Every structure is written in structure tokens, then in C-alpha cells.
Amino acid sequence: MCQNHMINYKFKSKEENDFWSVLRKRVNTYFKENNLEKDANRHMVIKSIALFSLYLTPFFILIFAGITNLYILMSLWVIMGLGKAFIGTAVMHDSIHGAYSKNKSYNSIVAFSAALVGVDRLIWKIQHNVIHHTYTNIEDTDEDILPRFFFRFSEHQPKRWFHRFQHIYAPIFYCVPLLEWITTKDFVKAFEYRQMGLIKKGAEFRKEFAGIFFRKLMYYVVFLVLPVLMIDIPVGTTIVMIIVSHAVTGIMLALIFQTAHVVPNASFVKAESENLDTCWASHQILTTSNYGMKNKILTWFVGGLNFQIEHHLFPDVCHVHYPAIAKIVQQTTSEYDLPYYSFPSFRSAVAGHFGMLRDLGK
């Protein structure tokens, strides 16, 4: 990452017709006229309980039911993997953005779900909220599109001979990120962000590093040591099942997020200077794509991240409001001659993503 670019990029303060001011005013008017709060409602609370149950109920069955049938055990671990992914997208994600509750203490309690998923909430917040949401699809800055040698996510990135196969091996690599995150990534990023000034050196860094260590230790004890001790099958078999469970979570999260930005219609910016050509809001429109907007079941499970445009424009708004906000965003982008990218379904977005990987590798 080029830290100087990330810190010093400057967006235009206004577009010609001040698109962002008009859009923000219309969205605020929608909430005011409908007497709605921007944070979670009763449906969101019910969803949170349901998703925690989807994640933790299989775990308690694994630990206490005395099941030794490998097919049943593997099925329970896979369900846990899915539950973990959807907690990440539909509960943790909103809370770390501060969109779950206007009460900071309550929001912080819900954000503790990050520890249950195995990631550190401050590191996630810096990488996702601060860097990705500000500098979306900007080369060498947005960590979500860093090629990491094995991939070529845009035409600006170097092409290697094996990239012609990246659309084939991508699903395997997409299984890995969560495994990396629950082991080494939080520690590595803590040092990296300290050097970049995103975590203060001294007492703040020591506190954060100690917090990462103890939360990781808790996670390993509960979700690794306890299953190994309590499930009456060979230790190696249990560990393999745990790895598979994390791989399921990893690939689900990768597909949910990659299909919003690494798709053919989204723009990728290779900035020649610190001054960018668009305002921040227009940049989000140009680099982001929705999918499956009419699919209510998909919206429920992925935490409204299929409305990625609305999320990037209004990250402090709980995702349960995105479908209504989308109509306002579509109207306003049309008036200001801005695009509004969207795939009709999740499947078509996935196809677009892998098609793009294939084309970039040729």
C-alpha cells in the first residue's frame, strides 16, 4: 500500500450541480417525513437473534449432543460457517459502522460480534470503514483490490502468465482470507496501521495489541480447543472440519463483497496526482455496483450489501432502510446523469465477477 497516497488524496468538494448535497437532503427528508430513525428497528433485532442462533445453535449441538457421525458433524460445521458469514454481513458490519444503534454503548456491545467471528473490530474498521469506504477502487490504496501477486483485479495491475487461470483458482483462494484474518492478519495490520499513523503509537497501540491477543485467545479456546476436547472423533478430523467451516465463511464473504466492486461496470482509478477528478459521492457511484435488489431473501441474509451503492453513500444508516433509499438514489443519479450500476441477481453478479477475472487474465 502507498500510504502517502491514501492519506493525501483529495476529492472535489462539489460537482457542477452539487449532486451529493441534493441526495443527502432528500434522504434526510425521507426519514423525517416517515418519522423513522436511521438505525436498527425491531426487524433488525429479530434478524440479529436469528443469525446468532444460526451460528451458535449448531456449535452447542456439536459440543453437547455427543454426535460422532461425520456427515452430521460436517453439516453442522458448514451451517456454522454460513451463520458466521451472515453475522459478519448483517450484524457486525452495521455495528462497526455505527449504524446499529445511535447509543454508542449498545452499538459497541453488538460490535463485540466481531470477536465471535474471529476478527478484531478496530482493524476491520480501519481497513474497511476508513480506507475502503473512502478510497474505493483506488489502486495501491484500497486494500480490497490489492492483487497480492496471484490476482489481477484491474487493467492497471501487472499481468502474469498464470492470471489466465485466475477465474478458475479464485474460489480456492477466496476460502483463505478468513483463515488468515483469525491467525496473523490482525497482528500484522496493527503494526502496519501504527506505522501509517492510523493507530497511535505508545499506550494506544499496546492496548490494542493486547486486546487482539486476548480476544484471539478466547476465540481459539472456544472454537478450537473446546471442540477438539468435546467431540469424540480424531483430533485431526475435527480440525479439518473447523478449517472447512472457516473456508465456507471466507468464500461467502468474498463473493458478497467482490461482486460489488470487482465487476465489469465498476471503475478503477489509477490516480496521477493527489487531486481526484470527482467528488467523494460520485466516486462511490462510479466504483460500486448493486445486485439482486428485488430479492428480499438475499437482502435479509447479506445485510443489505446487495445495495452496496446505498451502503457506500450512507454507511451510518442501518441496512434495513436501503431498499427505500435506493429509489431516492436512483432518481437523483438519473437527474444528474450519473450511472447506477446493478446486476439483476446475485448469480449474474458472480458471473460478471468471474468473467472479468477471465478477461483480465487473457
TrEMBL record:
Keyword Transmembrane helix: yes
InterPro entries: FA_desaturase_dom, Fatty_acid_desaturase
Pfam families per the UniProt record, alphabetical: FA_desaturase
Keywords: Membrane, Transmembrane, Transmembrane helix
Membrane-spanning segments: 44-65, 71-93, 209-231, 237-257
Fatty acid desaturase domain mapped to chain residues: 76-343
Entry GO MF terms: oxidoreductase activity, acting on paired donors, with oxidation of a pair of donors resulting in the reduction of molecular oxygen to two molecules of water
GO BP terms: lipid biosynthetic process
GO cellular component: membrane
PANTHER family the UniProt entry points to: DELTA(5) FATTY ACID DESATURASE C-RELATED, FATTY ACID DESATURASE 2
Descriptive protein name: Linoleoyl-CoA desaturase
